[in-house]
Design goal:
33% helix; five-stranded parallel beta sheet; 173 residues; alpha/beta
């Protein structure tokens, strides 16, 4: 099978050496060619990233044209934790609608919001529902990975990254 061109849009959970994050194992298992990773620490549906290496310094909604320029077969969006206790329903819906308009034939995938706090605040669950509604409204795929990062502190542990990879592969295979 031909390798798929993939853009990853996300927050710090997707930044770094692909072999050390969920991105590498998923790309290998699902035949994604070297993906274009536009993830940036602190990026969300509402939140502007803390730093931006080579991608627009905007929330997800402001990245659609940069994503579309890559002409991907698949776009994976993973984030929401940086948005905090604010509704992302409208922002998520608008982002996925804009992505679908820009990339009518691409597969759009959204991964549920994951936290590394000691327990998942209720708004994390609400964010997951908003993301699911937004991506499914445009014919995309929602992947619920649960909360493997609970208690990880500042960033996801290697074990949490591996669990996310396992669940994404299982649900997309």
């Amino acid at each position: 099978p031909t390798n798929l061109r993939v853009v990853i849009m996300g927050d710090s959970h997707s930044v770094g050496d692909p072999a050390q994050t969920w991105v590498g194992p998923v790309a290998e298992q699902l035949n994604w060619e070297p993906e274009v990773n536009m993830a940036a620490p602190g990026r969300g549906y509402l939140a502007t990233p803390r730093s931006c290496d080579g991608s627009p310094c905007t929330p997800f909604g402001g990245t659609v044209s940069a994503i579309a320029e890559q002409n991907p077969d698949v776009v994976v969006t993973f984030g929401g934790a940086a948005d905090g206790d604010f509704s992302i329903t409208q922002a998520a819906a608008q982002y996925f609608q804009a992505l679908r308009s820009a990339l009518p034939d691409a597969t759009l995938i959204a991964i549920s919001t994951v936290t590394t706090e000691d327990q998942a605040p209720y708004w994390v669950t609400l964010h997951g529902q908003s993301v699911q509604a937004g991506v499914e409204a445009v014919g995309g795929v929602f992947v619920n990975v649960g909360q493997p990062g609970i208690g990880n502190g500042a960033s996801l542990s290697a074990e949490a990254q591996a669990e996310i990879a396992r669940l994404v592969i299982a649900q997309l295979s």
